[in-house]
Amino acid sequence: MDKINFMLAGVGGQGTLLAGNILADVGLAAGYDAKKSEVHGMAQRGGSVTTHVRWGPRVDAPMAGKGEIDILVGFEQLEALRYVEYLRPGGKALLSTHKIPPVAVTSGGAIYPDEARFKGIVEQVTQDYLLVPAVEIARELGNARVHNVVLLGALSCWLDVPAAIWLEVIERHVPAKVLELNRSAFARGREFGTQNH
Amino acid sequence: MKRLLSGNEAIAYGAWEAGVVVGSAYPGTPSTEILEAFAPMPDVYAEWATNEKVAMDVAIGAAYAGRRALTCMKHVGLNVAADSFFYASMTGVEAGLVVVSADDPQMHSSQNEQDNRRYAKFARVPCLEPSDSQEAKDMVGAALDMSEEFDTPVMLRITTRIAHSHGPVELGERRPRPPRVDKYPRNFTKYVMLPQNARPRHPVLEQRIALLAGFAENFPYNRVEMGDRRLGIVTCGVSYAYAREVFPDASILRLGMTYPLPRQLISDFAAQVERLIVLEELDPFLEEEIVLQGITCEGKSIFPVAGEFDPQVVREAAIQAGLLPAEQRVVPAEPAKGELPPRPPVLCPGCPHRGVFYVMKKLKLPVQGDIGCYTLGGMPPLNCIDTCGCMGAGIGVAHGADKAGDAERHIAVIGDSTFFHTGMPALLNTVYNRGKSITVIMDNRVTAMTGHQENPGTGLTLQGQPAPQVELEPLVRALGVPAVSTVDAYDLRAVDAAFKAALAREEPAAIITRRACVLLPEARRQSRPLRVNREKCIACWTCSRIGCPALRRSDEVYAKTGRAKSDIDPLLCTGCEVCAQVCSQDAILFRAQLADS
Q1: How far is the C-alpha of B78 from the C-alpha of B88, rounded, in Å?
Q2: B538 and B482 together in one domain
Q3: B66 and B103 both lie in a single domain
Q4: Is the dihedral of CA B398, B399, B404, B409 positive or negative?
């Protein structure tokens, strides 16, 4: 059985906590030992948030350290850059194309990294990454908020866990009235991941 | 079936399973979720108290009445509750009392990091430390049993990485228990700590700790895991997990009870290993005890005293100390990133505090801050807070500077919940001691920063019962403040007028800036995004000085200066109209104007 260290990086309010809960529960459902660690801090105030999820035959520490992350999931571009060196050199990164400029940019004149700078930084750590227009896909389905489940769908392509397990776990974590939307989000994300390997 | 639970959730289940009937706490990261998870459980009473000291008194009262009780707080919360913690240790209890201290190494959401195991030793209270969520649950029951067997409160000490990490937990059934007394105790010598009664209790405490030290030798959560004898590691809490991760072959003594220590178990372990190290975050608490026993060990000479650990921090320190071969070093990439724009937490779009800080900033007076969402008024570009130490400090600090003869007129800002917590005595002090500082109570009708908990101003209890709502203005008048005004926090003119009136008089003043937190359901329902009239905008960027995340630069340029005109993100803007009031050109449409255009 593999050991996999995930790190989810995003902005407070983007749904990274829910995604982390689902990811950890999928690990358990798939027979791994799993742990998850997050910092609530002042996350709701639009700050930077990270969640660690670990799968393995036996998981001790609830989080991994810099350079030990196997898969980085970036929910927002600037935050993916902020934590990119946590990813093992050559590790895999699933990166949403979504941008949320912080106040330093919107009011303070700082420059949000452009596409070229973004790739330039990521590629110093790994060439093995996939850009996912998760928010656009979610909007097409009717609600930008499910972009987090779109990302999980894309992530699922890299993992050896049947889709049925993912869907069962998702069902346990989302309200009934948005279950169909979330199932579609997962499916579209998984489809995107499969097509864009 | 195992469920993935956070340490906090697990503690709530543990309390419920072990028959706890009363839980009282004050919100504080990383402890808040314990009582939130406990409150909806069947057959329990759970409350948000006004502060941690009151919370602890409440739990003590329940324990005196023979029912098992729980109180929870963050590390600095125990500073507030310390007086009660000490007397509870002196008197003992009738039924089990567990005190959860959730420390925050790395200060993810705190003004300091402090090692509250020291309080346990200081007060002669046993301390248990779980290493994962399952133990967090199971140790609550163990703590309560210990509390009753030895007649002592028991500290259950966790840290952020236990509180907010999730792991699989096996749940059990509730084991309810009848009250341990038929009648509330009338035991004068045990419970009334007059000196004549307190004096004989001190030796009782010392003896109790000696008995507990004997008990610790066989306590099942103190566990030896022998491996390679070249290295022996004494560890506790989440550090145990890092020890297993980074030193998979070493011999480990995992202490689940970190005060008092099992001296024999420790010496036996030390004798069996070649090199003995202590792996613990923050203070050399275990290390000092082991050294006191006359055993050589290394702790803070290897591992940091400040900040939290993670497997990398531990591994790197171990390699430097020659405990691990250099080949095991994990070398992260070092990408050249240049300066990435920072993303600190900021006041939400529509936050009612924003406009008040903008007005205050123009006064150029010193502002003593306090703990809550409004502390973020100190962040750029508002930069309007000069000091902030702990809950309820600002008002006293302002008064102290005033009485020291500082030439400037002092302002203190405090939130509604913080005011109820410790602000009231401070304001009373300002009035009673003839101060003249100005106190701004930022009343957003909820305990916001910790996740929107109820408080005496909200009209609801933690368990959803209707509650009397304290009215701040009459309360402040009753404290004797001669000049009190309540203004709508969104109305900058009214806020400004209130400050001008307060500054005109050499007497203490209170300004209550009132407006519900914009994240509350009622406020959310009323959100409506505003718009910039590009034709009127001259790109002066005055609006950007309020630092609202919903304001941004458009791609349209003002020809005369070449600067970008302003724009409002309709997904973020709530329509508070603070930017519209600040705009020098009336270029931002007010809500009333949106209907017309």
Answers
A1: 13
A2: no
A3: yes
A4: positive
Identity of the residue in A62, A68, A88 whose CB atom sits nearest the CB atom of B161: A62
Containing structural domain, residue B509: 353-524
Q: Do B341 and A47 touch (CB under 8 A)?
A: no
Question: Do the domain assignments include residue B249?
Answer: yes
Residues 165-224 of B with CB under 8 A from A: 165-168
User: In whole angstroms, what is the distance from residue B450 CA to residue B398 CA?
Assistant: 25
The answer for residues whose C-beta is within 8 angstroms of residue B478's C-beta and 6 or more apart is none
Residue A148, token pair as written in the block: 């987090």
Domain holding B554: CATH number?
A: 3.30.70.20
Residues B211 and B150 in one domain: yes
- Check whether residue B435 and residue B452 sit in a common domain: yes
What ipTM was assigned to the predicted interfaces of this complex?
A: 0.94
Measured between alpha carbons, how far is B259 from B129 in angstroms, rounded to an integer?
A: 9
CA B415 vs CA A77, B353, B460, B484: distances in Å? 34, 10, 18, 16
Please indicate, yes or no, if residue B334 is contained in any of the structural domains.
no
pLDDT in tens, A84-127: 999 999 999 999 999 999 999 988 889 999 999 999 999 999 99
If you classify domain A4-195 with CATH, what class do you get?
alpha beta
pTM as predicted: 0.96
Please give the Cα distance from B463 to B38 (Å, whole number). 10
Closest chain B residue to A89, measured at CA: B333
Residues of A in contact with B312 (CB under 8 A): 64-68
Q: Do residues B144 and B293 share a domain?
A: no
How many whole angstroms separate alpha carbon B277 and alpha carbon A29? 38
Name chain A contacts of B332, Cβ cutoff 8 Å.
Answer: 66-67, 85-86, 88-89
Interface contact B312-A66, CB threshold 8 A: yes
B332/A111 CB distance under 8 A: no
Percent of chain B with pLDDT over 70: 100
Task: Answer whether B547 sits within 8 Å of A47, measured CB to CB.
Answer: no
A-contacting residues of B 308-347, CB under 8 Å? 310-313, 315, 330-347
Chain A contacts in chain B segment 453-512 (CB below 8 A): none
User: Would you call B331 exposed, middle or buried from its count of C-beta atoms within 10 A (0-12, 13-18, 19+)?
Assistant: exposed
Same domain flag for B519 and B545: no
In chain A, what residues touch B104 (CB-CB under 8 Å)?
A: none
Residue B238 lies in a domain: yes
CB-nearest partner of B29 from A40, A88, A103: A40
Separation of alpha carbons A193 and A94, rounded Å? 9
Kindly state the percentage of chain B with pLDDT values over 90.
Answer: 98
Please check whether residue B335 lies inside any domain of the structure: no
Q: What domain count does chain B have?
A: 4
Q: Where are the domains of chain A?
A: 4-195
Cβ of A61 within 8 Å of Cβ of B312? The answer is no
In whole angstroms, give the CA distance from residue B165 to residue B292.
34
Tell me if B346 sits within 8 A of A104, measured CB to CB: no
> Which residues of chain A does B551 touch, with a Cβ-Cβ cutoff of 8 Å?
106-107
B210 and B255 part of one domain: no
Please work out, in degrees rounded to the nearest 5, the angle formed at the alpha carbon of residue B418 by the alpha carbons of B416 and B424: 85
Q: How far is CA B121 from CA A38, A71, B154, B310, in A?
A: 30, 43, 11, 26
